[in-house]
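WARN no homologs supplied; continuing
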Amino acid sequence: MTARPDVLMIPRSRLRELLLPAILRYAALLCVANLPYWVLGRFFFLDRAWFSVDSVVVALASGLGPSVGLAVLCVSWLADAVTSASRIYFFGSVGSFVDATRFAGRLDLLAFVSWQNAAVLLAFCTCAAMSWRLMRRRIDWRAALIVSLPIVLLDVLNGSSYLSMRASRIEAENVASSPLLTVARAVAVARPPGPLDTLPKGESVSDVVDVDAWAAAHPNRSILLVMVESMGLHRDTGVREWLRAGLVDAGMSARYEVVERQLPFRGATVAGELRGLCGLAGDYRSITPELAGRCLPARLAAQGWHSVGLHGFSGNMFDRRDWWPRIGLQQIEFGEELSPSGARRCGGAFRGACDTDLVQRAGTELRRSRQFVYLLTLNSHLPVPIEAGVSPDAQARCDAAHTGRDVCQLIAIQHALLRSLHDMLLGLDDTPLVLLVGDHAPPFVGTALRDQFIVDRVPAVVLVPR
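OK structure emitted
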């Protein structure tokens, strides 16, 4: 047998010598690129895959220089943050969250500045420096392929990949993902929003009582629907009872029959609005004239009722100034009208008119007959401003439930809102029908804070005049 020329053996030997260090260097880059999210996942709700395989793109880009690779790494981190944030804030898809970023200029972004965010930024800067050092020597694309393929294969076998044929996952968590691809697809392939779905009977607060029948039977009364921002169900019964007592006491029970429910929720605030006003699920941009006619304001308008919509933030946020009238809200007032320059303002990142002022504005409308008033609250939108302190009663409840400062501040704001509603309703001569519901659980980033609330339910209270 003729021996192979040595010239064919040398490249293979040389390949092994060169590829092993490259494999180790890419594996190190993969770990460092994912390290910030692995560490943050110990404290924050991220709901991301174990590995982002976008480090393959980073490795390829580093062939043009470590600075180019570092720039691509930062972009991949940003894409990872976007996909995580879409889940944190209950957006139905990454595309919906990306679309919502066009409203970011209306927020007080300084409200997001905190020592925690500064520590997170420092962690990313440290990992960026480590990655740049690893990329100073070019990483062989074959090394990236050798390390990444088993991870992708494991993702497929687990059933958590788009390529998988499994009907269910072996491990509940996702193994690998590409946030860069996910965000790029959401931006580049601007898909029209899907059709709205009709919710099963009983999932909307307006299903708790037959509002249409009540309106027909009480033409000289009024109706109030309050959608409370970030009002979830705290797991501690003492906290829930304390919040309830802010609205319902002996005086209210004498005037109202109190009906309480725990309703499922899906999506963020606008999804809560569609659920409460229309019994629909999906994207507000898909509202057709036919679907709009099914919404509560439109149905009441058909009975000759007048409807008013109140919200303390900009009417341009989520295009409410456009779609609110389409569902039958005839008179709409937003932050521009309710909180003009120089007026009292409340809230954190979403700063606008004070909810307690809007409650009084709603009370003025409710004194008229055949009035439907929809009040979407604002001031409990996270992040809420941390004041100097809360009332002793609130602090006692928080201490007993070990809520921590942030949750305590949130429930104190919501208790103040409920108490102002209580006072306003008791001051009315004619008792209106009142429907109150949370839009979604509080989207706290911290896992310990988020876990204090039931993950898929919100409270609903209906006050039916006796």
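The radius of gyration is 27 Å.
OK
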